[in-house]
Amino acid sequence: MLTHGILNSQLAAALAKLRHKDQFVISDCGLPVPQGVEVIDLALVFGIPRFSDVLNAIKADLVLESGIMAKEACNKKPEEWVKESLGVPLTYVPHDGDEGFKALVSQAKFVIRTGETTPYSNVLLRCGVPF
């Protein structure tokens, strides 16, 4: 049995398969996910686990080069959580629309669904390389 790190087997396996330039999403409990994109559902009840808890849990296991968030998250808690936890450069797109955040979710390898209920607690992350 593992003694540290990610204990959820589905999440651990998905993270281990990520390569440079791959993208994945950490989302609140309400983000619609397009058909065909894997969902790793960690949500237990509203608020558990928190978006920030999941950010902190994955940060030691990955090299990330950038993130995308909805413009609506600017200067709000979700943006603060991502900046504090991951420190990756962020770009912003509208939440809705043909080139908005929801549309970009279709490019993700998977979505990690949290129990977060704070609006716009969603980030699309792009993997880097450690060398």
From TrEMBL:
What SUPFAM superfamilies does UniProt report for this protein, alphabetically? RbsD-like (SSF102546)
The gene behind this protein is rbsD
Q: Which NCBIfam families match?
A: PRK11797.1
EC number(s) given by UniProt: 5.4.99.62
Provide the reaction this enzyme catalyses: beta-D-ribopyranose = beta-D-ribofuranose
Q: Name one GO cellular component term.
A: cytosol
Q: What is this protein called?
A: D-ribose pyranase
Q: Name one Pfam family in it.
A: RbsD_FucU
Q: What class of enzyme is it?
A: isomerase
Q: Which UniProt keywords apply?
A: Carbohydrate metabolism, Cytoplasm, Isomerase
Q: Name one GO biological process term.
A: D-ribose catabolic process
Please give one Gene Ontology molecular function term for this protein: D-ribose pyranase activity
